[in-house]
Specification:
The complex is a heterodimer of chains A (about 290) and B (about 450).
Chain A lengths: L3 H32 L6 H19 L2 H22 L9 H23 L15 E3 L4 E3 H23 L1 H18 L4 H23 L9 H16 L4 H21 L4 H15 L12
Antiparallel strand pairs in A: 1-2
Chain B lengths: L10 H16 L2 H4 L21 E8 L6 H20 L2 H6 L11 E8 L4 H15 L3 E4 L3 H14 L2 E4 L16 E3 L4 H16 L4 E7 L2 H15 L4 E8 L7 H8 L5 E4 L3 H13 L2 H4 L1 E4 L6 H4 L8 E4 L10 H14 L5 H20 L4 H8 L5 E3 L2 E5 L6 E2 L2 E6 L12 E7 L20
Parallel strand pairs in B: 1-2, 1-3, 3-4, 4-5, 6-7, 6-8, 8-9, 9-10
Antiparallel strand pairs in B: 10-14, 11-12, 12-13, 14-15
Classes of the chains: A mainly alpha (about 290), B alpha/beta (about 450).
Chain lengths: ~290, ~450
């Protein structure tokens, strides 16, 4: 299906897919970068955002309220998770951290399944973004266009927090050397809590913003989690700009490969990750020694 | 007093015999049984699995993942069948006249594992049910990849596999086994049944876009649809192959949208079908081309909220056929009473497969697997929920009708679960391929 119109459509679609992956991955990568904990419950956070938003939407009928509820709820879950469980694991081996976050992920997914069942739930797109828009070379769902804009705003906000605020400076310093930050008299554990909350919130926000594009099922975060890892590995572990670059690359790989041979779209994603691991193990924008 | 009594038995001898008897009771049951059971050697879990007052059936269905919704429905069908068989329900007696309570007087005990539609998880669980629970029969499906894997396990372990939902031609085709049987319709029969109607409805020489999940089910169903529409001049302009559980179908759908197709044949299943159809709507694909679902998905109409209206699909069962088939009516009523909704075809297939198996065991008069298999291979005409059927001896595929349905418009629906109108019930005999066409070689009995 290679023709000019389709190529341009796919490049654009890759950008849209990539934006979503970038947002989810940025949450995962700043948590790992700062706390050193690989949060395997991150996909479940994405899913929780969607369901929390869905509940809020069914009570209020407002998509805006749904987005707020989805993000804040998951941010809160993140903070609680860090305070009650994760903080006891900072000094424990990585395997323990993986196991506990993996386990928490299963608990969240099954709790949601218990409450809502396995059948998919719909959150409709807000009325102003419903329908299809003609971009000249292609037709594209209006809401998906809006999602690209919404995510761009969210990523910009995250960038400003990380690069233009005092707390962001501490977080970035923590990514470089958390012991040094601690030695300078900064309460690094409070920062950890905030980072975990922000990272989870990014996933929750992505979950509810993405909800009208897909239909919600309890397992929705599982496949996203795998892709998110790929993105983080490609972009560089702990690197916020790396997550964005990795996300966009992943989106483009899926879209453009699908045009040539759809059966290989997801395979190519892993091939790209393998290539990066071989040639540049710390990722495209990562720092040597952090992989 | 002499140490010998009149029978010539000494106290010492009595002690010896007693010790011998006590010792014999300590021997594992299987060790001494063959002498009592027609001199048949132990095979698989026989006779160990059927010596108690109950027998175990191992079921692996997807309760998580892309096929979770369909797996739960399937499981309900199994549960109801076990309940009915154990209590000697009237419906069981209609299908299996010799049945009383249980099977050969033994209560059925269903043990369940989540397969997540993954072959390795299903095989692990079933291996456990076979070695620890001595399951006399294993079942499950939803994912032909799982069905094919369990076929192989069943043949190796010599424990009968009564297949759950599986649409691939391979299940009773190139991957068929002596120890596997399948009740439900599949790629070949679905395509043979629906293709003539599609050509009649949409005309000849159409351009078709396919959406195909990337495993045995998807590939064989797409192939069958292509084969059966070829003579009418239908050509494939694109075939979008996607992995099971793809989180997004946008790139595939852009290719479909730009393909110039008249018809979209969507072979995706479970939540993949729900998501791809919803997103096809978002991308305007459904406004440009006609959607066809050749292998109907339980709950699809409910979950896609109106998008199946006017869409043709082939299926195993749709509840409104109850006006033609009294057994279907009985099944629908008892199922709905217990679970609160009309059964979909996953539950129907699960339920009737169990009743057929119970009948075969009752008729064979033994759980001995080769006898049960030979009973299936007698090709006796037996009742089902869609009329009389039989299992074909060459490939163990049930020869049964395929039901063609069309999504009802909102205004025509008489009740909230009246999603489809039954267009045609196509008899199974002429839909089947030649027994060896897909390369089936059943393998050994022992």
């Amino acid at each position: 299906m290679i023709n000019w119109a389709n190529f341009v459509s796919q490049v654009f679609n890759g950008l849209a897919l990539g934006a979503l992956l970038a947002l989810i991955s940025s949450g995962l990568t700043i948590i790992y970068g700062t706390l050193g904990v690989l949060n395997l419950a991150h996909g479940a956070m994405f899913m929780l955002g969607g369901y929390a938003g869905y509940v809020a939407y069914s009570y209020t009928g407002s998509f805006l309220v749904a987005v707020l509820a989805g993000s804040l709820f998951v941010g809160l879950v993140g903070i609680l998770m860090e305070r009650v469980i994760i903080r006891h694991f900072y000094s424990r081996p990585h395997e323990d951290q993986l196991l506990v976050t993996f386990g928490l992920g299963i608990v969240f997914v099954e709790l949601v399944r218990l409450a809502f069942g396995s059948q998919s739930q719909l959150v409709p797109a807000p009325a102003i973004f419903s329908g299809i828009t003609s971009l000249g070379f292609m037709f594209y769902p209006t809401y998906r266009l809006a999602v690209v804009g919404i995510i761009a705003v969210a990523l910009t906000a995250l960038f400003l927090v990380l690069y233009r605020t005092r707390i962001g400076m501490i977080v970035r310093a923590g990514i470089e050397d958390s012991m040094m930050v601690d030695a300078l008299g900064i309460n690094v554990y409070r920062v950890f809590m905030i980072v975990f909350g922000i990272g989870a919130m990014a996933a929750g926000f992505a979950g509810i913003v993405n909800a009208p594009v897909v239909s919600l099922t309890p397992g929705i975060g599982d496949d996203i989690l795998v892709q998110t890892f790929v993105v983080v590995v490609i972009g560089g572990v702990g690197s916020f700009p790396g997550a964005i670059l990795g996300g966009l690359i992943a989106g483009e790989i899926i879209s453009i490969t699908s045009m040539i041979n759809p059966g290989y779209a997801y395979v190519m994603l892993f091939a790209a990750m393998t290539l990066v691991l071989v040639l540049r193990p710390y990722g495209l924008l990562g720092t040597r020694g952090r992989e | 007093m002499s140490s010998h009594d009149k029978n010539g038995l000494s106290r010492r001898n009595i002690l010896t015999v007693g010790a011998g008897l006590a010792g014999a009771t300590l021997l594992p049951g299987g060790f001494i049984m063959p002498a009592f059971a027609d001199d048949k050697p132990a095979i698989g879990t026989w006779p160990a699995g059927s010596q108690g007052s109950s027998v175990t059936i191992g079921a692996s269905v997807p309760r998580t993942g892309t096929y979770a919704v369909q797996g739960e429905d399937e499981l309900k069908g199994y549960q109801l069948a076990v309940e009915h068989i154990n209590e000697g329900h009237e419906l069981v007696k209609k299908v299996s006249p010799k049945s009383k309570k249980g099977v050969l007087g033994k209560q059925l005990n269903l043990v369940v594992a989540d397969s997540a539609a993954k072959p390795n998880e299903a095989v692990q669980a079933q291996q456990r049910f076979i070695s620890e629970n001595k399951a006399v029969m294993i079942t499950g499906g939803t994912s032909s990849a799982v069905a094919v894997a369990l076929n192989k396990l069943a043949q190796r372990e010599k424990v009968l596999f009564v297949c759950g939902i599986s649409g691939s031609n391979d299940t009773t085709g190139k991957d068929c086994v002596r120890y596997g049987v399948r009740q439900n319709f599949f790629g070949q029969t679905a395509a043979a049944a629906i293709a003539p109607l599609l050509v009649k409805t949409f005309g000849k020489n159409k351009k078709v876009a396919y959406m195909t999940p990337d495993y045995t089910y998807g590939h064989t169903v797409t192939k069958s649809m292509q084969d059966f529409t070829k003579d009418a001049g239908w050509t494939t302009v694109t075939n979008q192959i996607s992995p099971l559980g793809a989180p997004d179908f946008s790139s595939y759908l852009l290719n479909v949208a730009n393909s110039g197709a008249d018809i979209l044949i969507n072979v995706n299943w479970g939540h993949d079908a729900v998501l791809s159809i919803q997103q096809a709507k978002q991308f305007g694909v459904l406004d440009k081309m006609k959607l066809v679902v050749p292998y109907q998905v339980p709950f699809l109409a409910r979950e896609t909220g109106g998008l199946m209206q006017g869409v043709y699909a082939a299926t195993d069962y749709w509840w409104t056929i109850e006006d033609k088939f009294p057994l279907a009516k009985m099944f629908n009523d008892t199922f709905e009473k217990k679970f609160g909704y009309k059964p979909e075809w996953g539950a129907e297939n699960a339920y009737i497969s169990f009743l057929h198996w119970a009948r075969m065991v009752e008729e064979a008069g033994s759980f001995y697997p080769p006898d049960v298999i030979k009973q299936y291979e007698k090709e006796e005409t037996i009742p089902s929920l869609v009329g009389d059927v039989h299992y074909r001896k060459e490939d163990h595929q049930c020869v049964r009708p395929v039901v063609i349905v069309k999504g009802k418009m909102q205004k025509d629906m008489k009740g909230k679960e009246d999603f489809y109108e039954v267009v045609e019930i196509v008899p199974g005999k002429d839909l089947m391929q030649k027994p060896d066409e897909f390369g089936c070689k059943l393998g050994d009995y022992t």
